[in-house]
Amino acid sequence: MIVDIHTHFWDFSDIASSAIANAENAGGVKVRFNITSDMHLEETKATGKSVVFGLRGKGINIPNDMVKAQVDIAPDRLIFFTSVN
Fold this sequence. Notes:
Elements: E1 3-8, H1 17-27, H2 37-43, E2 49-53, E3 55-57, E4 60-62, H3 64-73, E5 78-81
Parallel strand pairs: 1-2, 2-5
Antiparallel strand pairs: 3-4
């Protein structure tokens, strides 16, 4: 069984433009920050289990309740981890 221990799901509006710019500057590449529910479900389909994290930090606020709702779509293979800042 494949277990992905670190995935994220969020809405682009939850990420400040400054956080996107910082990520792109640090990595030197364009960052894809819009990860829809359908995209996340499709990209985690190959795993037996995937842990899904919220994310809170400077310029980023991915609500835990939104991540929990995503996990509830496929509870047989998605595992919810809360985020605390």
